[in-house]
């Protein structure tokens, strides 16, 4: 029996008040979709099966390099973070897995597994961290100031490799099947490091990490254009990332964090290319306006999110073979992180549902006839459809809330944990 930090009776009462309207909205949308030859129940089934992992570091308040403004009741460690993740899942029913970051979330693996099992959660890809120093870790005395996996000093590289191997070992004990490697390595000045030799050293380190992967594990390498390095970054773009994945072999795949590209980059085209290359490993979903803003998925440019899903759905079986993993990677500075994550998961599902509504046969026909207007209209038609009744139905049928943010506010969870968890100073877990 799963223990839920949200009273199921509360969700039932919440839904009882809204059920009639949802049923009417669902029937009305179903009628309109059937005129387009679409079976609403088939769409709802696919949406229900679609899940996205939440980042452990996302349930604490984030920050910028200028300041962090902690919210009330922030989780003080990984076990309280898991409690918050269970709230997100109880109400939204789209996020049954959590992605951990080591050493931020380091704890006894048996206890981690036990707590997650009790809460009905599981673990998605693990994340290693060699982008900051870990002075309290006796296994990591050397500094990553000038890099980690690509560092000029072999001893630092070996330490960084060993940290990744340890992260895999923890992940293996808690049922994860993948590790995501993102490094901050790069330079601030031309001439600071040799661009070619740095990359060679990185590849050599990654080969050692791949050699430590269990047979059923995958490794995702995550590219990012800049930050913390501002002149050059070792794993800077999807071209570099593809080279890496091809070099490292069949267990290696590229991870696309939507915030890690230059503004206006055509990310959906990158996704299409990586599917063609059979190297799309997964996503870190978020939204951005200027850089790696880590804003809530779909909050700035929902059309772009839809276009990414349009590529995924359009790829059909080619994508099924890749089974990319879906994770959120966000930093919540001004909202309650639980609310942001509930909403983001729903926005990601919305983009998926809308992409499922694209009339693909018609689209191909318009494309082949060079009918630019109707090709565009075919996508817009799907994007313009209000699929909220489908999303709400998927939630309710799985035991979640029709309006999960309203139900969360009604639950008083934040006030309850604020009383139990004294205000944190710098903690909350997360990158500043
Ligand atoms: C780097 C990144 C990467 C890290 C996370 C905290 O910007 O996207 O995925 O692990 O942020
Ligand atoms: Mn990321
Ligand atoms: Mn990022």
From TrEMBL:
One of its GO terms (molecular function) is isomerase activity. Keywords: Isomerase, Manganese, Metal-binding. Pfam families: AP_endonuc_2 (PF01261). Residues 100-294 form the Xylose isomerase-like TIM barrel domain. Gene3D superfamilies: Divalent-metal-dependent TIM barrel enzymes. InterPro entries: L-rhamnose_isomerase, L_rhamnose_iso, Xyl_isomerase-like_sf, Xyl_isomerase-like_TIM-brl. PANTHER family: L-RHAMNOSE ISOMERASE. This is L-rhamnose catabolism isomerase. It comes from Plantimonas leprariae.
């Amino acid at each position: 029996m799963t223990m839920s930090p949200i009273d199921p009776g509360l969700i039932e009462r919440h839904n009882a008040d809204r059920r009639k309207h949802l049923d009417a909205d669902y029937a009305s949308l179903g009628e309109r979709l059937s005129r387009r030859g679409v079976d609403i129940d088939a769409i709802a089934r696919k949406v229900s099966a679609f899940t996205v992992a939440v980042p452990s570091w996302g349930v604490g308040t984030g920050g910028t390099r200028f300041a962090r403004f902690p919210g009330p009741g922030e989780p003080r460690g990984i076990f309280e973070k898991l409690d918050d993740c269970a709230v997100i899942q109880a109400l939204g029913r789209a996020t049954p897995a959590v992605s951990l970051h080591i050493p931020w979330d380091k704890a006894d693996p048996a206890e981690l597994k036990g707590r997650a099992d009790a809460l009905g959660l599981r673990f998605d890809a693990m994340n290693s961290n060699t982008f900051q120093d870990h002075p309290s870790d006796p296994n990591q005395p050397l500094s990553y100031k000038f890099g980690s996996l690509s560092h000029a000093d072999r001893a630092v590289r070996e330490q960084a490799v060993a940290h990744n191997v340890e992260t895999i070992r923890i992940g293996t004990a808690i049922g994860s099947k993948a590790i995501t490697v993102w490094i901050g390595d790069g330079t601030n000045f031309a001439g600071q490091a040799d661009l070619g030799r740095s990359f060679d050293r990185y590849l050599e380190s990654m080969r050692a990490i791949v050699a430590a992967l269990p047979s059923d594990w995958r490794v995702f390498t995550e590219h990012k254009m800049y930050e913390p390095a501002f002149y050059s970054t070792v794993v800077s773009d999807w071209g570099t990332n593809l080279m890496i994945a091809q070099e490292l072999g069949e267990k290696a795949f590229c991870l696309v964090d939507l915030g890690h590209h230059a503004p206006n980059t055509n990310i959906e085209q990158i996704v299409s290319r990586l599917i063609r290359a059979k190297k799309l490993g997964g996503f870190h979903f978020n939204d951005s306006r200027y850089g790696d803003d880590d804003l809530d998925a779909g909050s700035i440019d929902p059309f772009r999110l839809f276009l990414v899903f349009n590529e995924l759905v359009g790829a059909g079986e080619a994508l099924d073979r890749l089974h990319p993993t879906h994770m959120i990677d966000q930093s919540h500075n001004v909202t309650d992180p639980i609310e942001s994550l509930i909403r983001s998961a729903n926005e990601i599902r919305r983009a998926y549902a809308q992409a499922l509504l694209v009339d693909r046969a018609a689209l191909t026909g318009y494309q082949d006839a060079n009918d630019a207007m109707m090709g565009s209209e075919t996508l817009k038609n799907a994007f313009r459809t209000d699929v909220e009744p489908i999303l709400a139905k998927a939630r309710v049928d799985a035991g979640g809330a029709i309006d999960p943010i309203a139900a969360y506010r009604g639950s008083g969870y934040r006030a309850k944990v604020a009383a139990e968890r004294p205000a944190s100073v710098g903690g909350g877990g997360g990158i500043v």
